[in-house]
Amino acid sequence: TLCFQAFLQMCNLPIQVICRANAEYMSPSGKLPFIHVGNQVVSELGPIVQFVKAKGHSLSDGLDEVQKAEMKAYMELVNNMLLTAELYLQWCDDVTVEEITHPRYGSPYPWPLNRILSYQKQWEVRRKMKAIGWAGKTLEQVLEDVDQCCHALSQRLGTQPYFFNKQPTELDALVFGHLFTILTTQLITDELSEKVKNYSNLTAFCRRIEQQYFEGPDKDGATAAARSAKRPLLR
Amino acid sequence: MAAAMELSCWGGDWGLPSLHPESLTVMAYAKFSGAPLTVNTINNSWRAPKGDIPVLVSEDIVISQPAKILNFLRKQKYNADYELSAKQGADTLAYIALLEEKLLPALLHTFWIEAENYCSVTKPWFASRIAFPLSLYLPGKMSREALNRILLTKGGPPLYSLTEVEAQIYRDAKECLNLLSKRLGTSQFFFGDTPTTLDAFVFGFLAPIYKVCFPRVQLQEHLKQLPNLCRFCDDILTCYFRLTVSGHSPTGQDTADANLQKLTQLVNKESNLIEKMDDNLRKSPQHPPRKLTTLKLAAGGEESSPLSRLSP
């Protein structure tokens, strides 16, 4: 969710964050999050970016063709590695599943619905992992992949403020969303966030974006809503 | 030197050393880095392929996925990425992720799911290389795995039917090809003049699309409109995979042929540059609009201006 908020903040568009238990069903594609503008509802990062672009705001106009290709490639890397690793950790690592994911996912529903729904989701995620070949990976291998991905991102970022130097782009929003979530979510072990913390320029990057776009007198409403929304979800 | 390394993979046809993208990637990387691999193509014997192909066997170590095989080769000091900067290494990872997310589903679809392609080309080809009775079962299993993978990764809502999923993955694949073409530009390989891991992966994915003759070829037609990618595949095939009858390239002719290759590449590069310059010239406005009004006054002006516009 955070990458969308970051993206919209970067475009200077005001937003309001609302939590709903049936959010997955309200979304047109079944995926969270989605935005509700006037009488239009748009979900998922790709269509939201297009929608915002059509309204006249775009972050990647200043890039040439080769840079746009690079940006898309890096976004796929983040989706491929970080997102899959997060899913793996949430749903395929037995300890985490028992202690954190099951209670959290099933919390809005009464028993036995909460157990059934979370088992169903777990089964779906495991099928997907098997299809892409991640089912055979151990936790160490997944952490190593995350490390490799962070290493690549860190190399690409270097000492610049944003990935494409002066202006933030969709890639910055996406990376911020994932890294911030990893750094602030409390899990059984801290290994995942330790991996990210190894790269000081990535943590500095997150801090910088947080300060620039999520703190400040007139933005308190959004961040307070974001923070309080995150708390019950992230315990 | 390391112990002898053997690679088992699917064989080739239509001018390719292998039809299978992952096998092709490993073979290309081995050629680029100079690793001495003995390649065993799977043929109609009872040593049935178990598990994932390609498989590298070195002494007692068995490694199966392309990424792991490449890591192993690098540890054995066969490193094609030696001269890359850290940032280029990062770019390599990113582009490989792009290939797997955007191009691989469409590739799998063209080979294994598109009914005409599967029944007339893929299934008979693979079945002829697997021993009976496994040949009745294995191609079907590979096809089901491909379908499963596509549906699970790409088939969520709002795409509810297979045709919608198909349309989406082909759109993604065409966009990916365009992005690769833009990134390659006019250079010979993705990072300068020497081929690297990224070149191996791109070659492994593109060459089957480019060369295999299928009845339904929308991806191939799109690829053929991107001449720099076609040239890229052809170059690698002619430079690194020149197979003679015995399957090994003759050492005697190597230097002369290498010079010929370099000459051909230079000529190709020059002609690409000339074409590009031509395009630029053609696109730039020959006659700015404000001059048209003055031309109309002169009687002969109107005839001369269309003539000069037609000249190359």
From TrEMBL, chain A:
Transmembrane segments: none annotated. One of its GO terms (cellular component) is SAM complex. GO terms for biological process: mitochondrion organization; protein transport. CDD domains: GST_C_Metaxin2. Residues 147-209 form the Metaxin glutathione S-transferase domain. The keyword Transcription regulation does not apply. Residues 4-121 form the Mitochondrial outer membrane transport complex Sam37/metaxin N-terminal domain. It is found in: Mitochondrion outer membrane. It holds the Pfam family Tom37. Keywords: Acetylation, Membrane, Mitochondrion, Mitochondrion outer membrane, Protein transport, Transport. The keyword Acyltransferase does not apply. Belongs to the metaxin family. Interacts with MTX1/metaxin-1. Associates with the mitochondrial contact site and cristae organizing system (MICOS) complex, composed of at least MICOS10/MIC10, CHCHD3/MIC19, CHCHD6/MIC25, APOOL/MIC27, IMMT/MIC60, APOO/MIC23/MIC26 and QIL1/MIC13. This complex was also known under the names MINOS or MitOS complex. The MICOS complex associates with mitochondrial outer membrane proteins SAMM50, MTX1 and MTX2 (together described as components of the mitochondrial outer membrane sorting assembly machinery (SAM) complex) and DNAJC11, mitochondrial inner membrane protein TMEM11 and with HSPA9. Involved in transport of proteins into the mitochondrion. This is Metaxin-2.
UniProtKB/TrEMBL annotation, chain B:
GO terms for cellular component: SAM complex. Residues 279-312 are annotated as: Disordered. It is found in: Mitochondrion outer membrane. Keywords: Membrane, Mitochondrion, Mitochondrion outer membrane, Protein transport, Transport. It comes from the Eukaryota. Residues 23-142 form the Mitochondrial outer membrane transport complex Sam37/metaxin N-terminal domain. This is MTX3 protein. It comes from Climacteris rufus (rufous treecreeper). The lineage of its organism: Eukaryota, Metazoa, Chordata, Craniata, Vertebrata. The gene is Mtx3.
